[in-house]
Amino acid sequence: MSEFTQTATVTQQQTVVQPYVRYDPGYIRTIPGIVKIVCIVLNLIGFICIEFSYFSFRPQGSFFNTVAMLGFWFSGIMLVFYLFHVCEKFHKIPWLKIELYFCAAWAALYMLASSIAAATSIEAFQAAAFFGYCAMIGYGFDAFLKFKSVRAGEIAQGSRTVQVQQQQQTVSTLTA
Description:
elongated
């Protein structure tokens, strides 16, 4: 007599979203919302430090301002998307992965831009470099949060539940 064991794994995934655009200020009080606002403010302060300098036309300042303004606009647009639940309406778009890649890239770009700005002898550039390093930490932390969320299989807004069931079946057969 021989036995044969068969195992089947069934995974059920349920995504619950509200597919309409609405204003919800509650996102501002969450950790990702606070980090996003901090990054927006740091982008703006770093940009202002360079722009009000007499030497803002130098390549170091132009590169820093490019990084700061692209970060400002991307983070600002994403903040508006979260506040008005646009990410929930279009939940099929991998928002978390997009933000993960952007935040990781911006952390690296801010490290580069801030190091270049700090290497100058211009005080305004050095002040901007400080805010750039702070923004680098903010974007790095946001990338870490997004990485954890992507790894857990979450979506940007709404809820997703995953249920895994395993079934085992043992079959005995007679052999002659």
